[in-house]
């Protein structure tokens, strides 16, 4: 039996057979490229810019970073929809155009923006309002005092960075641990200076110490100050507190220092609990009231109103306008001297009468 064989040269020509040397060169080139790429990635990840980039795109458990979430929602969800809407809009031959595109701009972009920005923004805003009223530290931004107005506005808008609303751990770290300062030989004013540097108003804060109010007032007056400690500036209070924690301080001032030490040594003191309450209340209002009002009432009502207007405009565009239709000139008809009435004779009868009359005339 004869077997058809493909020639060796033909196999080489068609690429079905390669030499071991060529295969080794190809594999070696690929491995070299991959190795160099890996070295480049490793070098980039260790650089300062690489670390910043990895911090931006890294996942936090099941949550993606805000830049990745923003890029995904607006770049990979809304942008293709806008492109397709424009294509469909160009394909329309009649009716109102740009309706779908306007819906996207009016409904989808604000809705996603509300989800991404509204809750963090409203939390920060409410934290600022409550902070001004209570004197507590509800949000922090170490750069707020040194940077410009517009940068502060931008830090308020940024959901992930900028102003940071305190959580329970932050509150405990700020409002407790004065005994650690004292045991380390640091003055008590260093502890309170951290509070004032982060935006605390010590006079308003101390108003929450109802039971210790008389002792604190006596401490302030014993230091030779006039007025109330609760209406004093941070600088005056820091001066009085610094003197009260000294060993040679008068007895009335020492009692005030002991009251402050007792409060700020407790990890669950009134300031920690009030900070958690204010920020939790702000978060609950934003999550269950304000954001649903924006997403469920405001944006849908605006969209419904605009959609009805667009539909009405489309219907009016499709209906013919009779008032603007050109007048058609009817062709003129010749007037007839013959008036046809209901009792007039038929055409056949007239022919017969005319014919008989003509016959009589000729003969």
Q: What can you see in these coordinates?
A:
With 363 residues, the protein is mostly helical. It has a domain at 118-314. It is 67% helix and 1% strand. The protein has helices at residues 8-13, 20-46, 48-57, 66-91, 99-134, 149-157, 168-175, 178-183, 188-197, 202-206, 213-222, 234-244, 251-265, 270-318, 347-362; strands at residues 139-140, 164-165. The chain has a two-stranded antiparallel sheet with strand order 1-2. Helix 2 crosses helix 3 (48-57), helix 9 runs antiparallel to helix 12 (234-244) and helix 12 packs across helix 13. The chain starts with 7 loop residues before the first helix and ends with a helix. The model is unreliable at 1-17, 334-341 and 357-363 (pLDDT under 50).
Gist?
The chain is mostly helical. Helix content is 67%, strand content 1%. It has a domain at 118-314.
Sequence-ordered SSE layout with sheet pairings:
Blueprint: H1 8-13, H2 20-46, H3 48-57, H4 66-91, H5 99-134, E1 139-140, H6 149-157, E2 164-165, H7 168-175, H8 178-183, H9 188-197, H10 202-206, H11 213-222, H12 234-244, H13 251-265, H14 270-318, H15 347-362
Keywords:
363 residues, mainly alpha, two-stranded antiparallel ribbon, 15 helices, 2 strands, disordered C terminus
Order of helices and strands: HHHHHEHEHHHHHHHHH
SSE-based structural type? mainly alpha
**Count of DSSP strands:** 2
The geometry reads as elongated
Distance between the termini: 121 Å
- What's the total helix number? 15
Report strand order across the widest sheet: 1-2
Helix content estimate: 55-70%
Share of β-strand residues: under 5%
Largest pleated sheet? 2 strands, antiparallel
Low-confidence parts lasting 5 or more residues at pLDDT below 50? 1-17, 334-341, 357-363
Please, what is the average pLDDT?
76
Question: What's the alpha carbon Rg, rounded to whole Å?
Answer: 44 Å
């Amino acid at each position: 039996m004869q077997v058809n064989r493909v020639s060796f040269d033909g196999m080489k020509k068609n690429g079905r057979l390669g030499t071991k040397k060529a295969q080794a060169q190809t594999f070696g080139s690929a491995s070299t490229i991959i190795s160099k790429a890996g070295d480049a990635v490793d070098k980039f990840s260790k650089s300062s810019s690489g670390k910043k980039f990895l911090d931006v795109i890294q996942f936090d458990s099941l949550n993606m970073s805000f830049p990745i979430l923003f890029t995904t929602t607006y770049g990979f969800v809304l942008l293709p929809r806008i492109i397709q809407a424009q294509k469909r809009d160009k394909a329309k031959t009649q009716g109102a155009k740009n309706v779908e595109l306007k819906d996207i701009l009016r409904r989808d972009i604000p809705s996603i923006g509300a989800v991404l920005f509204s809750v963090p923004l409203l939390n920060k805003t409410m934290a600022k309002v409550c902070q001004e009223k209570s004197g507590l530290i509800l949000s922090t931004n170490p750069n707020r005092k040194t940077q410009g107005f517009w940068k502060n506005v931008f830090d308020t808008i940024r959901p992930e960075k900028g102003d940071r609303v305190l959580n329970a751990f932050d509150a405990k770290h700020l409002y407790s641990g004065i005994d650690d300062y004292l045991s380390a030989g640091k003055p008590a004013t260093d502890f309170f200076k951290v509070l004032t540097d982060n935006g605390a108003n010590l006079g308003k804060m101390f108003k929450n110490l109802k039971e210790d109010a008389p002792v604190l007032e006596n401490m302030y007056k014993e230091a030779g100050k006039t007025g109330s400690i609760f209406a004093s500036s941070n600088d005056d209070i820091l001066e009085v507190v610094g003197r009260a924690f000294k060993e040679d301080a008068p007895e009335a001032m020492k009692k005030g220092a002991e009251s402050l030490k007792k409060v700020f040594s407790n990890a669950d003191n009134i300031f920690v609990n009030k900070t958690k309450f204010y920020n939790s209340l702000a978060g609950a209002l934003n999550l269950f009231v304000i954001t649903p009002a924006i997403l469920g009432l405001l944006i849908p009502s605006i969209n419904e109103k605009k959609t009805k207007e667009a539909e009405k405009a489309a219907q009016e565009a499709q209906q013919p306008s009779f008032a603007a239709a050109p007048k058609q000139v009817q062709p003129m008809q010749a007037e007839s001297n013959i008036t046809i009435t209901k009792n007039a004779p038929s055409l056949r009868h007239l022919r017969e009468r005319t014919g008989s009359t003509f016959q009589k005339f000729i003969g």
